[in-house]
Specification:
The chain is of the alpha/beta class and 368 residues long. The chain has a single domain, classed as NAD(P)-binding Rossmann-like Domain (Rossmann fold, 3-Layer(aba) Sandwich), CATH 3.40.50. 39% of the residues lie in helices and 20% in strands. It is built from 12 helices and 17 strands. The strands form 5 sheets. The chain has a 7-stranded parallel beta sheet, sandwiched between helices. Helix 1 links the parallel strand 3 and strand 4. The longest helix is centred in the middle third of the chain and has 22 residues.
Length: 368
C-alpha cells in the first residue's frame, strides 16, 4: 500500500474499522477516512433490510463503496457475535487506529416489537466492539453514535410555546438560545425500549474511557441525515419525507399537530466532528451533536420545504397519537463540542440538506 511505512523491515499499516458501513453515517465515514488510512474495514450485515423491509436495504451503498473506494474491505459480520468481532480485531491488532461504531437498530417504534433483538444489537453489539478494542487495539480511538433518545421524554417537560408551524422553547428559558445541553438528566423518564438500549451502550462507552482509559467519544445525535440515507417510515424522516414527496407515496405525520421540532445534521458535518475528535481524543466524553440552532425544522416546515424543492405536493395525513417517549422539541446545544474543538462549524442548514437529498436521491427512488 502506498501509505504504508517501513518499520524494522516490516510495514506499519493504519486501519480504520467502520460498523454499519452501508448506512448513512457509516458510508460517509468510510469515504471520509479512506484518505487518512491505508485500509478501511466495513462491518455491515444489512440488518436494516430486516428491520424496515427490502426498500431500506443498505446493499446498494455497500456495493457502491466496494466499487469506488479502492482501500475498502467489507465484512458481513453480525456485531452480536462476540467471537466473530474478536476474530476480526485479533487479525489486525494494534494496526487498528480508529473504530467508528454506527451500526444499530435505530428505530424506537421497531424496538418495541423485538426488545431482545434491539438490546442485543445496540447494547451487546457495542459491548463486543468495546471489549475487542480494549484487548486487541487499546490505543485506537473509539467513536460511538449514540442518540438524544438517551434523555427519554424529559425534554417534553420544558416550557414550550405554540407558534403557527412549530413548538418553540419559551424565550425566557436558559436553554432557549443554544438548545439542550448534556446536563439534562437521563433519569426519571420514559426512554422507549430503543432509548434504553442506547443508554446502556452510551454509558458503557463512557466507562471504557474513564475506567480503562480507552479513547472513547460518545456523540448523542438528533436527526442524522443526508443523501446516503435509506429512509424508511420508521426511521430517517427527512430522507423518507423527500422520497414520498418525489414518488407520490403517502406520508403519515404522528402527533403534536405536526409542529414537533428536530435539529438535523448532515452526514458530512457529523463525520467532520468525528475527525476532529479522532485527532485530539478526550476519553469518556459525551457530546450532544446536531444541527443546533443553525439547522432545525418542524414537521410542517419540512413538508413545505420538500414540496418547494421537489416541485410536487406531498400526500400526507395526520394521526393524533404520537409515538411513546417521542420528543415535542429537540434542538441540540453543541457548544460543549465547539468549546473542545473550536475549529468545528456546521456547513449545511435545513434547505441545503434537503436540496442535497433531493439531488442525489430522486433518480434512485424513481428508478426503483
Amino acid at each position: 500500500m502506498e501509505r504504508a511505512v517501513a518499520v524494522k523491515g516490516w510495514y506499519r499499516v493504519e486501519i480504520a474499522i467502520v460498523t454499519g458501513s452501508g448506512g448513512l453515517i457509516g458510508a460517509q465515514s468510510v469515504r471520509w477516512f479512506a484518505s487518512s488510512f491505508d485500509l478501511v474495514i466495513g462491518i455491515d450485515n444489512d440488518m436494516r433490510a430486516y428491520f424496515f423491509g427490502p426498500e431500506a436495504s443498505t446493499a446498494w451503498a455497500v456495493q457502491d463503496l466496494q466499487a469506488t473506494v479502492p482501500n475498502y474491505q467489507h465484512h458481513q459480520i453480525d456485531i452480536r457475535q462476540r467471537e466473530a468481532v474478536d476474530g476480526l480485531f485479533a487479525t489486525y491488532g494494534t494496526d487498528i487506529k480508529l473504530v467508528v461504531h454506527t451500526a444499530a437498530q435505530p428505530s424506537h417504534d421497531w424496538a418495541a416489537n423485538e426488545p431482545i433483538t434491539d438490546f442485543e444489537v445496540n447494547a451487546l453489539g457495542t459491548m463486543n466492539l468495546l471489549e475487542a478494542t480494549r484487548t486487541r487495539s487499546p490505543e485506537a480511538v473509539f467513536i460511538f453514535t449514540s442518540t438524544n433518545k438517551v434523555y427519554g421524554d424529559t425534554p417534553n417537560r420544558l416550557p414550550l410555546v405554540e407558534l403557527d408551524q412549530r413548538w418553540e422553547l419559551d424565550p425566557s428559558h436558559a436553554w432557549a438560545e443554544h438548545g439542550i445541553p448534556e446536563s439534562m438528566t437521563l433519569d426519571n423518564s420514559t426512554h422507549s425500549i430503543f432509548g434504553a438500549s442506547k443508554v446502556a451502550a452510551d454509558v458503557m462507552c463512557q466507562e471504557y474511557g474513564r475506567y480503562f482509559g480507552l479513547n472513547t467519544g460518545v456523540f448523542r445525535g438528533g436527526c442524522l441525515t443526508g443523501p446516503g440515507h435509506s429512509g424508511a417510515a420508521l426511521h430517517g424522516f427527512l430522507a423518507y419525507l423527500m422520497r414520498c414527496t418525489v414518488t407520490g407515496d403517502p406520508y403519515t405525520v404522528l402527533g403534536y399537530l405536526g409542529k414537533q421540532v428536530r435539529d438535523n445534521i448532515h452526514a458530512v458535518d457529523l463525520v467532520r466532528a468525528f475527525d476532529a475528535f479522532r485527532q485530539a481524543p478526550r476519553p469518556g466524553e459525551a457530546y450532544n451533536i446536531g444541527g443546533g440552532r443553525y439547522a432545525n425544522c418542524s414537521m410542517l416546515e419540512a413538508i413545505d420545504l420538500c414540496q418547494d424543492i421537489a416541485g410536487s405536493e406531498l400526500k400526507w395525513e395526520y394521526q393524533a397519537d404520537n409515538r411513546i417517549g417521542d420528543h415535542i422539541w429537540w434542538i441540540s446545544d453543541i457548544s460543549k463540542f465547539q468549546a473542545h474543538f473550536p475549529s468545528f462549524t456546521l456547513d449545511y442548514d435545513i434547505r441545503a440538506i434537503l436540496e442535497d437529498i433531493h439531488q442525489h436521491g430522486s433518480q434512485r427512488w424513481l428508478g426503483a
